[in-house]
Amino acid sequence: MGIASVRLSPRKPTVIYLDSHVGLSQGKNYPMTWHALDRLLPYAEPGVQVNGVIGLRISAIRGNDLHLTLAETESHLIIRGIAEPGWGDYLDDRWESLAKEGYPPLWRSPTLTDHERQDEQSHTSVRGTEKDIAWLGSGLLRRIALFHTSSSAYSTRSWITGDEWIFELDTRYEVRLDHDTLLSRLTDPVWGLPLRISEYHCTCDDLPLESDRYMRQCTYELAHSADLPCGLQLRFRWGRAAYGDEAREQLERLGADPNWLEQVIPVGGRHSRGEVSS
Predict the structure, then answer these.
(1) Which of 50, 81, 139, 228 supports an S-S bond with 224, CB 3.0-4.6 Å?
(2) DSSP 104
(3) CA within 13 Å, CB half, 167
(4) Model-level pTM?
(5) For strand 195-201 and strand 231-239, is the pairing parallel, antiparallel, or unpaired?
């Protein structure tokens, strides 16, 4: 996910610690600091939309810490990157590159720009849904460690469709699929989110797979406990690597924790087809 850890402190800004880098499809490493800001910093695509987070602004750079806020609010978030490369050079290069390509960068304006206001007015439903779902993103961010400590998956992806946040978690066939631990902790009445399982389809007790070419999927729909808008769908997939068989080598190259890696993609793991359970 690119996030190494999150630090929460009373009456202090939340600090997000980034991984050092991300692996590109060409096999090259790209600094996670740059990767994050590529997607977060707002810039206009004239006549189409604003990309990035509308209103996101940089309030300060202090060492490895990038202090972020939202225009016209009192919000405060800190992203902590690795020592090198730093934030400054990237921000200048990114600004110049976007401006040269005809995409006005917006993050230096102290207030919302005309581009951002026009986007909100033109996409009222979409932007409204983003605000409605913000509580879920905030809650998941504060519990992001669960995807590392309470899941059998070696790969986790997510995206938003309308008012539903979808997660796809892949567990290798030589590892016992475990979705109950993550589900129970996400819905814990004290430490979890205000979510309940509204619908599910579990395949753990199905007959053994006929071929290694196939995958199983257990799908869980979670809704707000008080039936507020917004849902969470978790897709727990079990089988062969969906994105190639070199996942362990790629994760090792990216500096994944060896103990975690041995749990989710063990070396010489025995094929346990038909022995998984919920």
Answers:
(1) 228
(2) -
(3) 22
(4) 0.82
(5) unpaired
CB within 8 Å of 187: residues ≥ 6 apart: 193, 195, 196, 197, 222
- Indicate the Cα dihedral angle 157, 137, 165, 28, nearest 10°: -20
Please report, in angstroms and rounded to a whole number, the separation of the first and last CA atoms in the chain: 24
In sequence order, the β-bridge partners of residue 166 are 159, 233
Q: What share of the chain is helix, strand, coil (3-state, %, to 5)?
A: 25, 30, 45
Q: What gap in Å lies between CA 151 and CA 145, rounded to an integer?
A: 10
- For 124, the token pair is 């009222």
List, in order, residues 6 or more apart from 63 with CB less than 8 Å away. Answer: none
Residues 160 and 166: beta-carbon distance below 8 Å: yes
Which pair of structure tokens corresponds to residue 166? 């979808």
Label residue 63 exposed, middle or buried (CB < 10 Å: 0-12, 13-18, 19+): exposed
Based on DSSP, count helices (H) and strands (E) in the chain, helices before strands.
Answer: 9, 14
Q: C-alpha distances in angstroms, 47 versus 56, 104, 116, 123?
A: 20, 12, 12, 12
Residues near 140 by beta carbon (within 8 Å), at least 6 away in sequence: 165, 193
Phi, psi of 115 (to 5 degrees): -60, -45
With bands split at pLDDT 50, 70 and 90, how would you rate the model's confidence at 234? very high
Q: Which of 1-10, 97-106, 130-139 has the lowest mean pLDDT?
A: 1-10
